[in-house]
Amino acid sequence: MPAISNLGATTRTQPLWSPDKATVVFVLGGPGAGKGTQCQKLVADYGFKHLSAGDLLREEQDRPGSEFGEMIKSYIKEGTIVPMEVTVQLLENAMKSSMDGGNAKGLFLIDGFPRKLDQAHAFERTVVPSKFTLFFECSEAVMEKRLLHRGETSGRADDNIESIKKRFRTFVETSMPVVDEFEKQGKVVKVSAERGPDEVYDDVKRLFKQRGVEPITLKFVQTQEA
Ligand SMILES: Nc1ncnc2c1ncn2[C@@H]1O[C@H](COP(=O)(O)OP(=O)(O)O)[C@@H](O)[C@H]1O
Ligand SMILES: O=c1ccn([C@@H]2O[C@H](COP(=O)(O)OP(=O)(O)O)[C@@H](O)[C@H]2O)c(=O)[nH]1
Ligand SMILES: [Mg+2]
């Protein structure tokens, strides 16, 4: 991944792309709601590039020589939101390299972002306005169970009960206002995320269709049996 040597993105006054050059669907929901799991399914069927803000931050945290590594580590452990200049720049860099590298249509699922109003405003003002937000609704009891299970193998510093409780609090206090704001604009697609991954995905597909987003059609060569 390219280094984030400058954090200029958020100082621009115009978006880098117009919505006809880049289609961004934000994917939100509490920690453990299943954002990453559903994004993987969507990538296979719709040709989106999946960008997880959390993954990009963890990658920058572990990049040798990063001036932001220690800062990112402590925000993640505490379940708080890394200053938006860093995250918006990481996303912009990843979007540029995806579009240079074959994602000519510029289809993006941005997973776990924006988690705070300042990030939402900065991204839409300086990178590209989003198409809509896919929001996974899930109770804390279910999310906690999933995260503790994930923590058995994830190696993540924040999949433990102390960090999970802090992340829930950040989600309610800081991230839900983002969903509320997009909802007022009619830009939220809500899905109940408590059933199994395939049942949840059936709803996602149905709702994408309603929003005019269709799967990639694969052309099969028909073979005839003698
Ligand atoms: N619908 C589901 N039912 C049960 N477990 C799920 C479901 N979706 C995801 N999981 C599991 O729950 C954990 C959290 O899912 P993940 O996709 O990483 O969520 P998020 O990105 O929202 O934190 C993972 O271990 C995943 O395998
Ligand atoms: O825009 C973002 C997205 C994530 N994070 C941090 O990264 C952590 C993990 O995010 P991720 O999306 O990977 O967690 P998930 O919800 O998928 O469990 C969050 O708790 C935050 O501390 C952040 O600061 N800004
Ligand atoms: Mg995730």
Automatic annotation (TrEMBL):
<feature type="binding site">
    <location>
        <position position="150"/>
    </location>
    <ligand>
        <name>ATP</name>
    </ligand>
</feature>
<keyword id="KW-0665">Pyrimidine biosynthesis</keyword>
<dbReference type="GO" id="GO:0009123">
    <property type="term" value="P:nucleoside monophosphate metabolic process"/>
</dbReference>
<keyword id="KW-0808">Transferase</keyword>
<dbReference type="GO" id="GO:0006221">
    <property type="term" value="P:pyrimidine nucleotide biosynthetic process"/>
</dbReference>
<feature type="binding site">
    <location>
        <position position="167"/>
    </location>
    <ligand>
        <name>a ribonucleoside 5'-phosphate</name>
    </ligand>
</feature>
<feature type="binding site">
    <location>
        <position position="119"/>
    </location>
    <ligand>
        <name>a ribonucleoside 5'-phosphate</name>
    </ligand>
</feature>
<dbReference type="GO" id="GO:0005737">
    <property type="term" value="C:cytoplasm"/>
</dbReference>
<dbReference type="GO" id="GO:0019205">
    <property type="term" value="F:nucleobase-containing compound kinase activity"/>
</dbReference>
<feature type="binding site">
    <location>
        <begin position="112"/>
        <end position="115"/>
    </location>
    <ligand>
        <name>a ribonucleoside 5'-phosphate</name>
    </ligand>
</feature>
<keyword id="KW-0963">Cytoplasm</keyword>
<feature type="binding site">
    <location>
        <position position="195"/>
    </location>
    <ligand>
        <name>ATP</name>
    </ligand>
</feature>
<feature type="region of interest" description="LID">
    <location>
        <begin position="149"/>
        <end position="159"/>
    </location>
</feature>
<dbReference type="InterPro" id="IPR027417">
    <property type="entry name" value="P-loop_NTPase"/>
</dbReference>
<keyword id="KW-0539">Nucleus</keyword>
<dbReference type="GO" id="GO:0005634">
    <property type="term" value="C:nucleus"/>
</dbReference>
<dbReference type="GO" id="GO:0016776">
    <property type="term" value="F:phosphotransferase activity, phosphate group as acceptor"/>
</dbReference>
<dbReference type="InterPro" id="IPR033690">
    <property type="entry name" value="Adenylat_kinase_CS"/>
</dbReference>
<dbReference type="InterPro" id="IPR000850">
    <property type="entry name" value="Adenylat/UMP-CMP_kin"/>
</dbReference>
<feature type="binding site">
    <location>
        <position position="58"/>
    </location>
    <ligand>
        <name>a ribonucleoside 5'-phosphate</name>
    </ligand>
</feature>
<comment type="similarity">
    <text>Belongs to the adenylate kinase family. UMP-CMP kinase subfamily.</text>
</comment>
<feature type="region of interest" description="NMPbind">
    <location>
        <begin position="52"/>
        <end position="82"/>
    </location>
</feature>
<keyword id="KW-0547">Nucleotide-binding</keyword>
<keyword id="KW-0067">ATP-binding</keyword>
<feature type="binding site">
    <location>
        <begin position="32"/>
        <end position="37"/>
    </location>
    <ligand>
        <name>ATP</name>
    </ligand>
</feature>
<comment type="subunit">
    <text>Monomer.</text>
</comment>
<protein>
    <recommendedName>
        <fullName>Uridylate kinase</fullName>
        <ecNumber>2.7.4.14</ecNumber>
    </recommendedName>
</protein>
<keyword id="KW-0418">Kinase</keyword>
<dbReference type="GO" id="GO:0006207">
    <property type="term" value="P:'de novo' pyrimidine nucleobase biosynthetic process"/>
</dbReference>
<comment type="function">
    <text>Catalyzes the phosphorylation of pyrimidine nucleoside monophosphates at the expense of ATP. Plays an important role in de novo pyrimidine nucleotide biosynthesis. Has preference for UMP and dUMP as phosphate acceptors, but can also use CMP, dCMP and AMP.</text>
</comment>
<dbReference type="GO" id="GO:0005524">
    <property type="term" value="F:ATP binding"/>
</dbReference>
<feature type="binding site">
    <location>
        <begin position="80"/>
        <end position="82"/>
    </location>
    <ligand>
        <name>a ribonucleoside 5'-phosphate</name>
    </ligand>
</feature>
<dbReference type="Pfam" id="PF00406">
    <property type="entry name" value="ADK"/>
</dbReference>
<dbReference type="InterPro" id="IPR006266">
    <property type="entry name" value="UMP_CMP_kinase"/>
</dbReference>
<feature type="binding site">
    <location>
        <position position="156"/>
    </location>
    <ligand>
        <name>a ribonucleoside 5'-phosphate</name>
    </ligand>
</feature>
